[in-house]
Amino acid sequence: MSEHFDRLETRDPQEREAALMAALPAQIAHAQATAAFARILKGVDPRDIASRAALARLPVTRKHELVEHQREARALGGDPFGGYALLGWRGVSAPRTARRVFQSPGPLYEPEGALSDYWRVARAIFAAGFRAGDLLHNSFSYHLTPAGSMMETGAHALGCAVFAGGVGNTELQLQAMRDLRPTGYTGTPSFLKILLEKAAESDAKLSLARALVSGEALPASLREQFRSQGIEAFQCYATADLGLIAYETAAREGLVLDEGVIVEIVRPGTGDPVEPGEVGEVVVTTLNADYPLVRFGTGDLSAVLGGHCPTGRTAPRIKGWMGRADQTTKVRGMFVHPAQVADILKRAPQALRARLVVSGRTGADVMTLRVEAASPPPDLADTLVQALRDVTKLRGEVEFVAPGSLPSDGKVIEDIRSLD
User: Are 161 and 186 in contact (CB under 8 A)?
Assistant: First the structure.
């Protein structure tokens, strides 16, 4: 039995990169066919975007912008997707008809296209050990949000049967597990923990041997708790906007990137790629022609993990979820954003990197911009202090530190007021 979902997973890395870059211009063209990206990428020739360096020059689009654009379009009676999708229905003009429409918190509406594995989750389900003919107990939500459909369509593409458990109704879900004896579970790790605890109360032995969990962190202690009950749990990283981004394998070494996305790690508040191994925001360009998001900022922090997966998969890996990139902080009643720190640095080319540290006590906040600079000229501190005031409308101090001394943890704004 093959250990890999398809040959794409074991391609030579150079072959994969060449294929992704060859597909990129067409994806830019797909995006420009939408009203939103026609505006965002105005004047861009898709043929020029055939490398990571060229891609990095395009703007990053973030989730809050999708929410705002959808809200504005709905207020005018326009496209509920805000002009970002090439899917619609009667009354919502688009080249293709959506199969399903979902709502995430915001609210943010997401389309599902007609492809059998639209969200590309079958690859992650396979890596978790599921095979054709297995019965999968799916406890992700089928209500409003797409998580249930993401897992179900992936399982169907793999040839698995699915019990549509959804969320809640713990006793009924346990009864179904006892009666149907599913091979494994998909859902959040916390709900699996609840199910196992409830089963233990009645001395019920469940048939579960594996689980694919997402939507929450999976602490090592909880993974071991599952393992002690005969369940090997795997994680996948997916979103309602992008589908599968990365997935865990039997090697348990980070998350392998999906074959249908181009992932960049950028400095929070900017679109600038960080150095390999440095923590930054996960930015994704999907090769989905129906919902062609280009440089979509997930708001999640991660870092590239060097080397290749011991399972033989050759795609790049990331270290997993390492926090949130949106480090917006309120200082003296004003919001300060990571993008503002980036703007300040642009005004001082001698500054290499910076971190804005907020200290003091509530009502007596102190802002200190710690700046890496090799040999700061005498007027650099004054330039940065003025830039800090111009950009944030707040007074702050500047402190120079040696190049390379700031932690590479993705933080641009650090709030230590709670520690004082």
Answer: no
Q: Is 168 left (phi over 0), alpha (psi -120 to 50) or beta?
A: left
Best CA proximity match to 389, nearest among 326, 308, 331: 331
- Residues counted in the chain: 420
Q: Tell me whether residue 218 is in a domain.
A: no
User: Mean pLDDT, the chain, as a whole number?
Assistant: 93
The per-residue pLDDT for range 203-233, each reduced to its tens digit, is 888 999 999 999 888 999 999 999 999 999 9
Residues 34 and 292: beta-carbon distance below 8 Å: yes
CATH of the domain at 382: 3.30.300.30
Q: Which of 161, 176, 163, 174 is nearest to 130 (CA)?
A: 161
380: containing domain: 329-419
Q: Hey, which residues does 61 pair with through a beta bridge?
A: 296
* DSSP assignment letter at 158: H
Domain count, the chain: 1
Residue 156 CA, chain-centre distance (Å), reads 24
CA distance linking residue 322 with residue 338, whole number of Å: 17
Does any domain span residue 396? yes
Give me the phi and psi of 61, to 5 degrees please. -105, 130
**Whole-number CA gyration radius for the chain:** 23
